[in-house]
Amino acid sequence: MSAGDGMTTTRRGDALAAARYLAPAALVLVGLLGYPMYQLVLISFYDYGQEQASAGAPLTFIGFDNYQRLFSEPQFWGVLGQTVAFAAACVAGTLLVGGALAVLASRVRAVPRTLLFLAALGAWATPAVAGSTVWLFLFDADLGLVNEVLVGLGIHDMAGYSWTYDKLVAFALVAGEVIWCSFPFVMVTLYAGIRAIPAEVLEAATLDGASTWRATRSVVLPLLRPLIAVATIQSIIWDFKLFTQIYVMTGGGGVAGQNLVLNVYAYQQAFAASDYGLGSAIGVVMTVVLLVVTLFYLRALRRRGEELA
Amino acid sequence: MTTLDTPLDASPSRAASRPRAAGPGARSALHWIAVHSLALALTLMFLLPLVFIALTAVMSDQQALTSQLWPREWHWENFAHVFTRSPMLSYFGNSLLYSGLATVGMLLSSVPAAYALARLRWRGRNLAFFAVVAAMLLPPQVVAVPLYLLWAQLGLTGTLWPLVVPYLLGDFFSIFLLRQFFLTIPEDYADAARVDGCSELQVLWRVILPMARPGIAAAALFCFLYTWNDYFGPLLYAGERPESWTLSVALASFRGLHHVEWNLTMAATVLVMLPAVVLFLFAQKSFVKGITFTGVKG
C-alpha cells in the first residue's frame, strides 16, 4: 500500500479513466459479492427450502430460528471445533515443511536444488482432485503402496488397514495431502527471502561466533518475519476454505459425517438437503469466524510492530 | 533445468558466496553429505506418488489391483479407453472453455482495473484498493447460497456461465497481483510518453503493458491453473448436468464409477494433471516471479 501514500495530487482526466477501468470490477464487487452477502444474511432469517427456491412458495420470516437450530445441534459445534483444529494443523504443517525445505534448498548445490524445486512444484501443480485421488490410492486399505510397505517392514497389523475409517487418522491423511500440495508456496516464498539476505550479515554473525542455529534464529528469522507473516495469513485463508480434499477424500465428510468441516457442512446442508436458510446461517457464522481469525492475526502482527505487504 | 534456476537465483552474484556453511574439515563434509542426501530423499519422496500414478496408468486392470510397482505389460491403450469409456473429450473441452475464457476475460477486465489502482491519480484510490483486498480474502463458498439462487433465477445453473462471467468482469486476486507489478514500473517512462502526447490509453497499451509482460504472464498462469483445478465451482453450478462437467468433477465421479479399475482411474488422473503440470514447468519462471512479487512486495 506504499504507493498510495504521499500522493495526494490528482490528475485531470484520471478519475474518469479510473471509473471506466474499474466499472466492471465494481459490478462484481457489488453484484456478485456485496449484494449476495446482504442476501446471505437475509436468507438466514427465513425458512428457505426447495419450494421457495424453485416453485416460488411464500417465504416465512423465522427470525433467529435457523441460528437456534444450528447452535442447538451438537454436530455443528463439533464441526466448528474440528474446522479450526484441522485448519490450524494444516497451517502449522505447511509452514514447518515449507520453511524447513526452504532452508534445505538454500544449503544444497544448484542441481539438487533444481530437482527439489521441480518435485515440489509438481506436487503444487497437481489439481486437488487428482492429488486426492492419488493419495487415496497410495493409502488404499488393500492395494495401497503404504500398507504394503508397512507390512513388508514387519508391521502386520497394517494389512487391510483403512486410513479413512478412524476420524483422526482420516483427518491426518487429508492434512497430509493438503500439506503436500501447499508447502511449495511457502517454500518458494521463504527461499526467495533467504536468498535476499546479504551474505555479509550472516558472515558477521559467524565471525561473532554464532552457531548456525543461533544465526538462523537471531538473524535469518527476524529478517524473514514479514514474509512468514504473509505466508501464514495466506495459509490460514487457504486452509479455512478447504473443500475439495475433504469432500473427495472422505467421500463428502467421512463415516457418519465425522470428518466434516464448516465448508463441506454448509454445502451439505444447503445443497444436498436443500435447506438454504440453514446453509446461509452457516455462511454467516463462517464469515464471522474468518473475520475474527484475521483480526486476531493482524492485531498480533501489529503488536510486534509489523505490517502486511 | 537451468531455466528453473534463474528465477530462484534472483541475484547471480550470490553464487560466489554460496559455500557459506562449508568450512574445512570432515565435519563439514559429513554435513554436506547429510544435507544433500536429505534433499535427494525428499525429492524422491515428492516424485514417488507422481511416478506411481504414471506406472499404474499403463498396467492391466488385473495388475493394478496388485501392489506391484512395475507394469508387466505396457497398456498404453488405457489412455484411449478413458476417452471411449466416458465423454472425457467433452469434459476436456469444458475445462478448456472455463479456464480459457476465464483467463482471457480476466486479462481484459483486470489489467485496466489494476492500472487504475496502481498508476492513475484519483481520489478514493486507496479505499478502492482496500475493497479489492477485502474481496480477495473472502472465501467464495461463503456467498455460495445467494449466488447459486441468483444464477438459478437467471436459468444459468447447469452451464459454465456462472463460473466464467465473474472473470469477464474482473478477478480480485488478479487485480491485486497485477497492481503490485505495475507499481514496480518506474513512472518516468509513462511521464515521458505523456509529454510526447500519448493518451492514457496509449500509455497503458504502449508503455506499461510491454514492461509488465512477466507480471501479466504470471497473473494469466495463476488464473488458468486456479480455474483448471477448481472443483467447488463446477460441482456447484455444473454438477447437476453432466454435459457441463469439467475434468475435476468428472475425475471425482470417475473414481466412483470405475472403482475396481484403478488403472483407468490413474490414466484419467494423468490426463487431468498433464496440462497443468506441463504449463507449470514451462512457465515456472513467471510463476515464481508472481509469488515473490505478491509476497515480498513492500
UniProtKB/TrEMBL annotation, chain A:
Signal peptide: none annotated. SUPFAM superfamilies: MetI-like (SSF161098). It is found in: Cell membrane. Gene3D superfamilies: MetI-like. The chain crosses the membrane at residues 21-38, 76-103, 115-138, 168-192, 278-298. It is a multi-pass membrane protein. It comes from the Bacteria. It holds the Pfam family BPD_transp_1. Keywords: Cell membrane, Membrane, Transmembrane, Transmembrane helix, Transport. Residues 80-297 form the ABC transmembrane type-1 domain. The keyword Cytoplasm does not apply. Belongs to the binding-protein-dependent transport system permease family. This is Carbohydrate ABC transporter membrane protein 1, CUT1 family (TC 3.A.1.1.-).
From TrEMBL, chain B:
Keywords: Cell membrane, Membrane, Transmembrane, Transmembrane helix, Transport. Its main location: membrane. The chain crosses the membrane at residues 37-59, 96-115, 127-151, 163-182, 203-228, 262-283. It is a multi-pass membrane protein. Gene3D superfamilies: MetI-like (1.10.3720.10). Pfam families: BPD_transp_1 (PF00528). The keyword Transport applies. It is found in: Cell membrane. PROSITE patterns: ABC_TM1. Residues 1-22 are annotated as: Disordered. InterPro entries: MetI-like (IPR000515), MetI-like_sf (IPR035906). The keyword Transmembrane applies. It comes from the Bacteria. Belongs to the binding-protein-dependent transport system permease family. This is Carbohydrate ABC transporter membrane protein 2, CUT1 family (TC 3.A.1.1.-).
